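Appendix B, record 7
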Amino acid sequence: MVEKIKIGNRFVGDSEPVYLIAEIGINHNGDLQIAKKLIDAAWATGWDCAKFQKRTPDLCVPEKQKDILRQTPWGEMTYIEYKKKIEFSKEEYDYINHYCSEKPLSWTASVWDLPSLEFILCYDIPFIKIPSAKISDHVLLKECSLTGKPLVVSTGMSTLKEVDDAVDILSKNSRNNFILMHVNSTYPAKISELNLRIITVLRERYNCLVGYSGHEYEMMPSVMTPIYGACIIERHVTLDHKMWGTDQAASLEVRGMDFLAKRVHEVKLISGDGIKTITEDEMKIREKLRG
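Structure tokens (predicted):
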């Protein structure tokens, strides 16, 4: 069992505090000022990393969806036009990189294709995130593994066989420098379908560290995940649930980010290490009651 992995300037593992990823994703709606406010929120509430999504829309958007018309705040446009509209450029990522370094706050991005991987490696990111949609892209998995960067790999909407195949690639090429993430990829996910016990299943099946990426409305499931062994928690974040965008409703607002960060660390303490001992305070009671 891999005990811990170094991500950026800290270790992640069973004996370490839970690593919190604020998934800004595309909730910035292409607006750098919104992204800055969400970075500020992640820093102020004690999260470890702000995460974005990097795509090459012409490669990532399925052909059957490219020409579908969509109503957006910028008027009616095709889906591919919308995806290009909200994609940050190098100039904007340069600013994000500088802005985060001043705090300092780690940042990274999910990569959806090889050009996006090449792009994001221009920055000193602490890890590479592979989204659930790309876990079956074995070429991308291998190229990400060969970078030497730690990998955080989501397993949503995947069979165990598909995860087996992905782990085989990761193990061969990344020297086990990866963490799997249990995910239900529905937005929002029903609490009856979260199946948090899968965190334990993944840990035992692959002898690796496992985290949780939550898409549910509720806060409690994410708070509970350290009990099952989650060493990373990722949640989408937003300034306001009412903002336009498909991910906003299942995201945490700033108050929720603060609540989750505090409760998760408390749960980690409450869970303990599983070793039966008599504590120092308990020993005093033992002496009193047993003589």
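Remarks on this record: The first helix runs from residue 32 to 44. The mean pLDDT is 94.
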